[in-house]
Amino acid sequence: MKEITFNDFYQLYQNEQLSLVDVREVEEFQTLHLEGAQNLPLSQLTDTYDQLDKDLLHYVICKSGMRSARACQFLAEQGYDVINVQGGMTAFENL
């Protein structure tokens, strides 16, 4: 599985338009999220993943990197190009 540190991701995020998939639950997403992120909770991902464009590279984020790692594994199995953002939103809060 491809991974990127939060700091490296955030530098890209600030300078490029990225496809960012946030797999936290709706309540967590509503409390705090990065602008432009698409919320597809891990608990519903098997029903919603087809909303993603297979031609794009997707960065996947959660709170710490555990749920996003599981989401990346699933999405990669479905043929998507994905990168897990290590540290997740916890790293963002600690910037």
UniProtKB/TrEMBL annotation:
Signal peptide: none annotated. InterPro entries: GlpE_sulfurtransferase (IPR050229), Rhodanese-like_dom (IPR001763), Rhodanese-like_dom_sf (IPR036873). It comes from the Bacteria. Residues 14-94 form the Rhodanese domain. It holds the Pfam family Rhodanese. SMART domains: RHOD. This is Rhodanese.
